[in-house]
User: Which sequence fits this backbone?
């Protein structure tokens, strides 16, 4: 028993070390010296895709690239009509990014495919490396994964980057043929499901001392801009009882946002922006502008929370004699993960010796687009301090290893169903 | 009786109309076309002083100018050793000012002197038109009135305006001799007191439907800059219970400032500035910077209020796991008005048929400096919407008339003591 445990630990260590080395290798490809920035269809994206393709080939996969630059590493199924299990994530990044957001999932998929070499599977396996998850360069939304679900919007091709280059031009420059985008959509009937490993980008797993967690849903989000209009006045001469202080009213609203967000199940509610006009030490604030960002894994919970917050803000405004206006500019439904795949990831984690936790994802992922194609699920990996979109983003080799082993075991669970 | 009332009303109307015409006349003198800006020692100040001097002479006053440009319109006393009653305000303005802030008090003084012509008074009378009350041009503090109290600071002469002109140079250009500033201080033993009429710059008299009010004290003020340091985080991925949201903490502090300020007697407490870092919709606020402006007519009340607010903010920070730091950069004592002069103004108002109210002044005035020389008191005049330091500043002719008649009657009350 003790001997077995040691062998297993060594295997985890080895998988983890390999994952970390591969991620570090991909991180060398950046559009900016001195920091990691790898935008969709940039030279760094091309170089990173080449390196990823080499890793896929090393794992025994046949590599192709679709018309949007998504890299596909395929292991054929036992029969031509076998379904395909997709595993993927993205290799583009934000500006001044961390190295794990995206590549971790691609590398875990490749290592899982490698670990499963020679093992019989009743389905084909594909490892996907999407290129347009962060949507930093062009005005798109998960373009490369949406295309698999048949949701690529043709008008995206005419969108331009900061230099005026259209997506169409950038695709051609990347060696892709935009005319072939129509070939990308997959047949849902032949697609078994989609699994994605990703860093958590939050602090929950670290706080619970868990290497991995299973995502139940990707939160829906409502965003709004709010304006409170009070009345400016001399901070020395207008008595407290005669004020219509926009900031004091806003403070009460922010407290209400926090209170309601805390009370609603698995939800978060944030005021990230708050500006004050005129913003002078001795002038009673006349106006504030603030934002609402409200997310929850259940749309009903989110809708009720938004209603509670907005009607609460209106009531605060009315009682205080200030005006309140809100403009909602995003209302995005939650994406539920597939029960069977969630259970497979949990069973996989158990077989890999990992305790897990079910948690919602507060951030968006390619899985949002893929869930429109096929059953989807995600495995989150603990990241240091919950930090992401930041060079300080960090995970441990042991946790990367745990993620690969969980993924391998989950595939085995699915294979035996 | 009805006839008397009509005569009296007509007299009030007439005084009011004269006051309004004189103020409008002074308002023609501005440094900027299209709006009123009359900075200390500017060409507009010189022209306005000339016009004011002419009004003083029309009221039978002998006009001199002191070494800081303060215009002095004097009616001699019955004997060479008679004390002097001072009445004044200022003729400089802020940038883009209203026309009543300052000139109203000077004009009321001149009209009162005119109304009292031929009447025996046991004291000399001086109408003062100060030039440096707003302290916009040079880094001074009530320089022209402070000089009468012997508080002119020699280093002020080396202070410069935005163009690098020193106060000393500006005085010389204005025709003043800085070497004679030492002649300005008055002998307290020979000074009966100082009365100042001024627009309220607040909404209290309007709300109480009163033309005039008597100031009990000019509020002391404490000002501080505060910083709250929390922890940034992804607005979607950090659960509510794991946040150290600097803005949510600040909202609780702002609510506390308002609550404590409302509870403290005659006090006001304002957060006029609040900035958020990083200030992004989807990032939990890491830091806020806000200001405190706390004023009260009683220093003990103000000190207790400051302590309550600062210790309250510290407690909020501690409970929420954020850091709170405050830097106090102003702690200015309140200036009590003189009981005898307050009573004289109240008696004067009653004789003029005006109901009054006692109220503190939230803004500073020349009376703060003059109170260091002699007993001082102020009469506030209702202004529309409490608006000042703004071209929309407005008063009625009837209220201006009520102020002049109150002032005249107050001087008569003092004369008969």
Assistant:
């Amino acid at each position: 028993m003790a001997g077995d445990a040691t062998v297993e630990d060594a295997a985890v260590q080895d998988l983890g070390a390999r994952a970390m080395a591969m991620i570090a290798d991909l991180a060398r490809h950046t559009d900016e010296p001195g920091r990691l920035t790898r935008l969709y269809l940039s030279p760094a994206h091309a170089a990173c895709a080449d390196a990823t393709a080499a890793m896929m080939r090393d794992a025994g996969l046949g590599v192709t690239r679709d018309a949007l630059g998504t890299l596909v590493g395929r292991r054929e199924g036992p029969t031509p009509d076998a379904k395909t299990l997709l595993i993927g994530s993205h290799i583009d990044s934000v500006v001044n990014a961390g190295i794990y957001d995206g590549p971790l999932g691609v590398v875990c998929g490749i290592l899982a495919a490698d670990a499963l070499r020679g093992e019989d599977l009743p389905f084909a396996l594909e490892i996907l490396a999407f290129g347009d998850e962060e949507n930093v360069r062009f005005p798109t939304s998960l373009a490369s994964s949406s295309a698999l679900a048949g949701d690529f919007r043709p008008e995206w091709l005419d969108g331009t980057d900061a230099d005026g280059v259209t997506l169409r031009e950038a695709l051609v420059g990347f060696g892709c043929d935009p005319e072939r985008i129509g070939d990308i959509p997959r047949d849902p009937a032949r697609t078994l499901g989609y699994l994605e490993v990703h860093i958590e980008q939050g602090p929950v797993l670290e706080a619970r001392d868990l290497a991995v967690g299973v995502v139940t849903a990707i939160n829906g989000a409502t965003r709004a801009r709010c304006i409170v209009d009070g009345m400016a006045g001399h901070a020395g001469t207008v008595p407290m009882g005669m004020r219509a202080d926009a900031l004091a009213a806003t403070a009460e609203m922010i407290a209400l946002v926090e209170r309601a967000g805390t009370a609603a199940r698995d939800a978060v509610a944030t005021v990230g922006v708050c500006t004050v006009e005129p913003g002078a030490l001795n002038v009673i604030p006349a106006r504030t502008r603030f934002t609402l960002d409200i997310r929850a894994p259940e749309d009903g919970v989110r809708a009720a929370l938004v209603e509670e917050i907005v009607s609460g803000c209106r009531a605060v405004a009315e009682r205080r004699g200030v005006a309140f206006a809100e403009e909602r500019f995003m209302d995005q439904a939650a994406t539920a993960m597939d029960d069977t795949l969630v259970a497979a990831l949990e069973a996989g984690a158990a077989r890999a010796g990992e305790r897990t936790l079910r948690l919602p994802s507060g951030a968006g992922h390619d899985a949002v687009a893929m869930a429109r194609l096929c059953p989807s699920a995600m495995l989150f990996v603990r990241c240091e301090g919950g930090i992401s979109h930041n060079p300080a983003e960090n995970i441990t080799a042991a946790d990367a290893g745990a993620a690969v082993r969980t993924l391998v075991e989950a595939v085995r669970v699915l294979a035996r169903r």
